[in-house]
Each structure stands twice: as structure tokens, then as C-alpha cells.
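Severity: low
Component: inverse-folding endpoint
Summary: output formatting inconsistent between runs
Steps to reproduce: submit the following C-alpha cells with default settings.
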């Protein structure tokens, strides 16, 4: 049985010393996420924000907006359930790469290791995305930076989401054309 401590409705910490997760644990996380206002949840398997390594199981619903951001340390991510486009930007906000990710059975990329200072966001394609993220600690808000062009209010977010989805489609079409030309 998994014992957890609630930091908030959206953040849980495992209290067990020896941690194993199974399908039922993931179902429970999905259930708890649905009960939250934002429909998200994070299960931390590290013991505190001060730990040097942060390991988290994270649930996001479709259309959840992750503000484009970068970290001063790298991160890695593995997809357990769902499909997502990880959109990588240059410093000016132009798309430089899209990583189409999905659970291993999808035959898409299911793992990435992102170096520090890479601006990125997610476009979640499935009804829910469950992923495992590992990054360096300790957690400090100043270890994350948002580019000046990133939206910072609800109106800007809606406009940005619509714009970025369109740009992603164009980028993918151009990418496919350039692959055919080679």
C-alpha cells in the first residue's frame, strides 16, 4: 500500500522508504487528478523540495497549458500513458523542434533527456498524459525561467494555444517535405 503526504491537492509525496508503483496506483492518481480543479496531480517519490534528485509521476489532462519555460538544469521525461508533442523553441519563440512522444506501445518516442536552458512546452493530444519526470533539485522557482514572449494571462494563453497549434502543424508539414527531399 502506498502511503502519501499531501503538500496540496495537486502535489503528493510518498512516505514509503521502498517505493513500487503498479497499475492500481496509476488508476488512483488518475482518479485524484480528476477531482482537482485543474485536473492535474504530481506524485513525488523524492522526500522533499530540498532533495538533490526529483522524481515525479505527473498527470495532465488534454488541453492543459504548460507555459513555455526552461530550467537551469536538465530534465528527463518518460511517457507512461498518452500522446504529447513536446515543442522546443529558440530564444525568439520560433519552433526549432517537435518531439512526438507517446507510451512505448505507440511506437513514438517515449523518453527524452533535455539539456538545461531549452525552452519547451507540451501540446497534449490524448485525453490524459501520465509521465515520469526526473530533474535536479532542490526545487526553487528561480531555477525556472519564462521567456518574455510567453503568455501570462488567460486571454494571451488562449490566443497562444491556438497560434502554437497552427504553427506546429505547419512545422510538421515542412519537416515532412524536407525529409522527402532528402
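Observed output (run 2 of 3):
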Amino acid at each position: 500500500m502506498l502511503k502519501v503526504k499531501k503538500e496540496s491537492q495537486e502535489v503528493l509525496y510518498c512516505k514509503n522508504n521502498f517505493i513500487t508503483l503498479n497499475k492500481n496506483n496509476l488508476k488512483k492518481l488518475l482518479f485524484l487528478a480528476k477531482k482537482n480543479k485543474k485536473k492535474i496531480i504530481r506524485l513525488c517519490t523524492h522526500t522533499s523540495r530540498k532533495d538533490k534528485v526529483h522524481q515525479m509521476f505527473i498527470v495532465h489532462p488534454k488541453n492543459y497549458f504548460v507555459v513555455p519555460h526552461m530550467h537551469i538544469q536538465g530534465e528527463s521525461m518518460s511517457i507512461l500513458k498518452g500522446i504529447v508533442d513536446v515543442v522546443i523553441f529558440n530564444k525568439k519563440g520560433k519552433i526549432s523542434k517537435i518531439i512526438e512522444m507517446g507510451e512505448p506501445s505507440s511506437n513514438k518516442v517515449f523518453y527524452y533527456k533535455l539539456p538545461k536552458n531549452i525552452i519547451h512546452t507540451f501540446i497534449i493530444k490524448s485525453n490524459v498524459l501520465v509521465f515520469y519526470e526526473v530533474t535536479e533539485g532542490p526545487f526553487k522557482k528561480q531555477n525556472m525561467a519564462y521567456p518574455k514572449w510567453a503568455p501570462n494571462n488567460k486571454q494571451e494563453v488562449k490566443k497562444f494555444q491556438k497560434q502554437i497549434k497552427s504553427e506546429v502543424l505547419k512545422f510538421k508539414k515542412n519537416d515532412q517535405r524536407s525529409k522527402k527531399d532528402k
